[in-house]
Amino acid sequence: xxxxxxxxxxxxxxxxxxxxxxxxxxxxxxxxxxxxxxxxxxxxxxxxxxxxxxxxxxxxxxxxxxxxxxxxxxxxxxxxxxxxxxxxxxxxxxxxxxxxxxxxxxxxxxxxxxxxxxxxxxxxxxxxxxxxxxxxxxxxxxxxxxxxxxxxxxxxxxxxxxxxxxxxxxxxxxxxxxxxxxxxxxxxxxxxxxxxxxxxxxxxxxxxxxxxxxxxxxxxxxxxxxxxxxxxxxxxxxxxxxxxxxxxxxxxxxxxxxxxxxxxxxxxxxxxxxxxxxxxxxxxxxxxxxxxxxxxxxxxxxxxxxxxxxxxxxxxxxxxxxxxxxxxxxxxxxxxxx
Length: 338
Prior knowledge:
Elements: H1 5-14, E1 19-25, E2 28-34, H2 37-47, E3 62-70, E4 91-92, E5 97-101, E6 105-110, E7 117-124, H3 129-146, E8 149-159, E9 162-167, H4 174-183, E10 187-190, E11 193-199, E12 202-207, E13 211-214, H5 216-223, E14 232-234, E15 237-243, E16 256-257, E17 260-266, E18 271-274, H6 277-288, H7 297-312, E19 315-321, H8 328-337
Parallel strand pairs: 2-3, 3-7, 9-17, 17-19
Antiparallel strand pairs: 1-2, 4-5, 5-6, 6-7, 8-9, 8-10, 8-11, 11-12, 12-16, 13-15, 14-15, 18-19
Helix pairs in contact: 6-7
């Protein structure tokens, strides 16, 4: 059955939504309109925001509508839910509209409009809580990539006119590096999640949150005292949550041209070693692959091209950190020389 996308869009834009808010994704963002609080809760969980109490929209944004719909509605008529190990393909029209049907979600993206409108119809009842979480996470990443953006678990700072990103697994020292560099005079773009955005021939980076979390060891080393707040358990580790701007210069939600990428890890000996462009591409793919399931050969090619160009336009390094935070003085000296 051919969907009347124009009518669906008009209906979605004219409906009333009980649950609304804003999801900042770096300098870009989504004005969110949802028929169920559950939808905004799941979206907020993945991107660490309370969407319904988030600040007003940024200038650069899109409208996201999440609409519950029964399985026997015209939206899903004739659609069987795809198995979890399969992929669905974007379909494009000459009018700047893209659609994606998974049997559980029907997605329509009006990407050439300003601001773009994004409709996600959610088939109810849900297959499972876990499946819904996974589908939302994957679909939002696919939509971001359509707009040449990639959300990543990483940190970034701006210092002396250069912007450096730090990419690594949880516990690899990204946040501590940012706080130590901020103490030395850097501006924190983000200490946990960033968005890369391709803008013509440039790659930009922007930060996604204002909150930072510090362990007791980092607290003692960076602040030289215990902060007056209770610690909570995050990812199995006790940390205190702080508003970064209360302690350091910050530049959240703003675009910066990216200069350097450091791949961080913890080991016994501190070191900074240049990484070849081909190796950097492999590292970027390894880091981002869980966020992106390919639909077509063209999508795979676009993905490889994106990170090949990002690596080609930046200086890339392996950064090995140790348990001795005094070793970060060596990183400061390195950044002052380049």
